[in-house]
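Section 3.1: Structural characterization of target chains.
Under the original work plan, the team committed to producing a structural model for every single-chain target entering the pipeline before any wet-lab resources were allocated. The record below documents one such target. The sequence was received from the expression subgroup and is listed exactly as submitted; it comprises 352 residues.
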Amino acid sequence: MSSQDIPEEKHLPSEQGDAHHGGVAVADDPFADPGLPVHKPRIQDIDERAAKRSERTVAMLFTLSMLATIGFIVSYVTLPVDKIVFIFPIGKVSALNFALGLTLGTALFCIGAGAVHWARTLMSDVEVADDRHEIAAPAEVKAKVLQDFADGANESGIARRPLIRNTLIGAMAMVPLAGVMLLRDLGPLPEVKLRKTVWAKGKLLINDNTNEPLRPEDVLVGSLTFARPEGLEEEQHDFQTQIAKAALMIVRIKPEDIKDKQELEWSHEGIVAYSKICTHVGCPISLYEQQTHHVLCPCHQSTFDLSDGARVIFGPAGHALPQLRIGVNDEGFLEAHGDFEEPVGPAFWERG
């Protein structure tokens, strides 16, 4: 093929000047910013009735959130943990878990939905473009940001729409109550259970070894006997919890050897009843020295003088053993005249 046979290349403009000689013009910037679209007002912007409807819708969602939070609290307090219900199509579920999930989910959803509806229908939707600036903003930029924030708050209508503002505050204030209620599961409330035992007026003293009520003649001078309250049996599900506070040791001392006046008044013919639980860390006391009337805790060697109000004479225990006031009923059995006057065992809760 000769050079004459090769078709001549069409002249392609490569310079801007070629366009003036009949060539194709090339745009200076093919990715030019088209700018913001023309703002179209919403129905709420031009019709106050539509704006009021949107306001009521937002307030309704916030109110539903408050009601759902109340439902969460009511469900948590009233529904038993072991109650099972059938929910179609889920099947059998825990009534408490289902109610808590439904009410808390509704409360959070209604706050979010209300906020979104508020923003889309009542807050200003004018798009604003601003140039990116450095992280360290100058003073004039900071002032502009604060002004923009103030303008945004003003445009949101929160100041002139008290119905939305008040219901939003109510919903946001009540939702944390659901989390506060969950703190209840951290453990049982102590109430006064640590300060009270099952001892009460008229309860017989039951010998731990024979399971029979004690008579004064059953307790010899110098002997140590362990007792529990009448009606407290090992088969009971809370036996260990109750015996840990109600365990009793019975000692008979000659009345003339008792130094503490109250101890003598609360005894019967020299028979004194003291808590078996050490006031240091709650170990059971089991060692008795009849010549000195001292009892010794085997854990940390705290020593108490049972002839002198069970005061501490050695060891780390913080205070004396509580004494139980006792007497004899019409049938001749030893009985309690009430509960202990002070908490039993370690004193950490009575210092709170």
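The two ends are 110 Å apart (CA to CA).
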